[in-house]
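Notebook B, p. 112. Complex prediction, attempt 2.
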Amino acid sequence: MTSAKRTRESQARTEELKYTLHQLFRNPLVVFGLVLSVFFIVVSIYVTKIMQPTEFANPLGFQPLSIGSLSVDPSIFLNILIYGGLAYLLQRLYDNKWVTIGFLAVVFLILYVPVPRQLWVVNPDGPSNIDFSQKLCWSNGLINWGTPPSACPPGSNYLLGSDDFGRDLFQMILIAIPLDLSIALEIVLIATAFGVFLGAVAAYSGGKVDEILLRITDIFFAFPGLILALVLAAILGRNITTLTIAVLIVWWPTYVRLIRGQILAEKSKNYVEALRSLGLSSRRILFFHVIPNSIYPVLVQSTLDIGGVILTFSALMFLGFSPSPVLPELGNLASSGATYFFLAPWLIFFPGATIVVISLAFNLIGDGIRDVLDPRLRR
Amino acid sequence: MRTIEYVIRRLILMVFVLFGVSLVVFYLTHGVPSAWDPVTAFINPKMSAAQIQAIRVQHGFNQPLYIQYFYWLRDALQGNWGHTGNEALGQPVTYIFSLRFPYTVELAVAATILTVGIGIPLGIVSALKNNKLPDHVSRIVALTGYSTPAYWFGFVLQLVFFYYFAIWGLPNLPSHGALAQTLDGAVPRTTGIPILDGLLGGNLAYAWDAFLHVILPAFTLAFISLGYLARIVRASMLEVLRQDYIILARSKGLRERVVIYRHALRNALIPAATLTGLFLAGLLGGAIITEFIFAWPGVGQLSLVAVFAGDANFVAYYTLVIALIIIVANLVVDVLYVFLDPRIKY
């Protein structure tokens, strides 16, 4: 009986999802955001594929997650998680194995088939081939540096100009995109998982545990995020892993609060009572019924937070917590632009604009989902 | 009165949270000696190692951490927060903070006024033209706002309104600081807030210059945060517009303007009011990036300097004051809610 009931419930959920997606894709801005974010993800995959693992050119500068002696390569782990999840979703939605297989084939093609050298847009050796003779060859209306303004401003030899190390800014931005995106995804995923777990514990155990967890989140909410991240970054040191941890520490309490509120609201509904009277264990009710029904607002928040995390992380880099001035990271690129601001405005303009577009893409999606899911506005 | 009970309960909780905050702040600023050595505030480069050690012992910096915490807490509760380690060496951090705080207040208030002035109309238009072109435009403005890094937007504004306006020969806006240097000290310091000082001192040129200086940073902050406000106003306006009393008002034959601005807007603005309060509180803590970009002499910029200089005393004081501001603001906003919306009871 339980299994029959579960299929019915999962069917209902699929129907609901179909309806939600239908509503979602009616919004042109969401479609625009989706196209943009898929574009950035594909760019990231492309860059990661052709870059050599050297000091400058390993844009994913962070090490695989290691827990003690166990080490998990985050990219493979994340790939299986993300694309497997999407494939499962497609199967549920269309109930057609060819759609799913086609999707997986395209993903495999993008992820694992090498790009022929002729098609490379990024020069993987570029970042380490710094041409210092081209450094500071800018001149402008107010200040003339007396050097020929040949190569540097955008549009001449370089599409977006060259940076203060004489590197092609366009290539540096392309290299920086996967770093920022993967860090943001990593932070949001871990913070969401952690927050959902603790929030569920708080909501379900109630009493003292709930109170203590809530007070801990209160303590974190009392600090503006950036200040706490700054202080943590100053203490933990300047490398990508510690900066990631600093942002992570700032980020998780939001999700605890969010999922806790959702679960408490969900718990008082009649169907939970019904399930309990059927004799289901409270853990089963929590994990298979209550959490799946209350997870959507958290997913919306996570989508919206990808943009926020990129902003915070790149702000830390911009303010000077970068491990190395040559690191291709969008905030770091913008930071070197700040030094030569009126001389070479493109140095800060293009990396910053890239951050705006990436973050806008995820915000458009998240905002669209929130609109569609808002129970007050639904139907 | 249940509201009073609620407030008392919140106040008691507030003490616990503040205690927790102080533990976190103390651990962050004093617990990791490699990052922030509290002794730096007391030494100068000429001292020998033995002298430094003596100071360390004298101030108890060699004691276990939890004992140091209670020393620190005792001193802090008596108003002795230590001295700064870098700027104006030897000044109490409270004095330095009070010198800089008025600038932050000026910027925060200006930014809040701009945010409310732009964000709320944007949200209303968005709700009234739901899913039509104005809604999409306002959605893009709002979302672009909170997708934009403050440092980038600040620089773009400087580039256009300071640099290019100068090149084109237009009257340009100042890009740095809170006041032109030539006007420094032109009026006596009364509140510390330049615009107010100028008005109180009867020096209109001073006030006008201060006003020009605040435009760009305030607009940077407003652009970034008006998105949240606009989205909240839109959502609550849409919700209110569906309620029965609005249908009743319409069926009475009231004009649409009256229905929207008299009946709907009042209820729809309640969440916006609370959000504005929290937003102002957050800004009073200093908009670090914006203050940094515009060389605004507020506490946010100072805190950034302190973090990089390893000035543990200032960072500790600063973070605790901000935490206090935010906690109190949250309480005030929650209590205000009861007065704004009689349907809510605690």
